Amino acid sequence: VQLQASGGGLVQAGGSLRLSCTASGRTFGYGMAWFRQAPGKEREFVAAITWSGVGTSYADSVKGRFTISRDNAKNTMYLRMNSLKPEDTAVYYCAAGGYGISSANFGSWGQGTLVTVSS
User: Fold this and answer.
1) Is 91 a residue whose pLDDT tops 90?
2) pLDDT of residue 25 exceeding 90
3) Rounded distance, CA 40 to CA 25, Å?
4) pLDDT digits (tens, 9 = 90+) for 58-74
5) DSSP assignments along 72-99, one per residue
6) So what's the pLDDT on residue 85?
7) Pairing between strand 9-12 and 113-118?
8) What are the two backbone dihedrals, phi and then psi, of residue 100, each rounded to the nearest 5 degrees?
9) Distance (Å, whole) CA 95 – CA 68
10) Is 74 exposed, middle or buried (0-12, 13-18, 19+ CB in 10 A)?
11) Does the structure show a pLDDT above 90 at 98?
């Protein structure tokens, strides 16, 4: 599975962005997720979603502000980010092939898209 993330950019604090991750190849039955990595920090879990879209999980730091969703007909996963904070600044990566908060659960990764939140 190949993943292509897009939608990053520069936004002011309090603003919103929507990230997209489009998959090519077989994704049937795959859970997907978003992770992020800020400069000088380790990659961290953001949100995950099951194949059906019924099951979702979020990091405490984004709960209530971010929403993960997917459209299997379009092989695309989304991350709607509202009320953005400067601490949300990071490269956001999409992943596929598993579920949960550990990056080790996922076998396929996108190239990342940069989100910068200015104060």
Assistant:
1) yes
2) no
3) 33
4) 999 999 999 999 999 99
5) GGGTEEEEEE-S--GGG-EEEEEEES--
6) 98
7) parallel
8) 115, -175
9) 13
10) exposed
11) no
pLDDT of residue 23 exceeding 80: yes
Q: Phi and psi (nearest 5°) for 68?
A: -100, 140
Q: pLDDT-based confidence at 79, cuts 50/70/90?
A: very high
DSSP string, 98-113: --SS-GGG--EE---E
Cβ of 6: how many Cβ atoms within 10 Å? 15
- For the chain, the farthest-separated pair of C-alpha atoms sits apart, in whole angstroms, at 40
Token digits for 97?
């092939």
Which burial class, exposed, middle or buried, applies to 79 when counting CB atoms under 10 A from its CB (0-12, 13-18, 19+)? Answer: buried
Place of tokens 């919103």: 16
- Phi/psi of residue 36, each to 5°? -145, 155
* Listed residue (89, 96, 111, 99) closest to 41, CA to CA: 89
pLDDT reading at 90 higher than 90: yes
Q: Are the C-beta atoms of residues 48 and 56 closer than 8 Å to each other?
A: yes
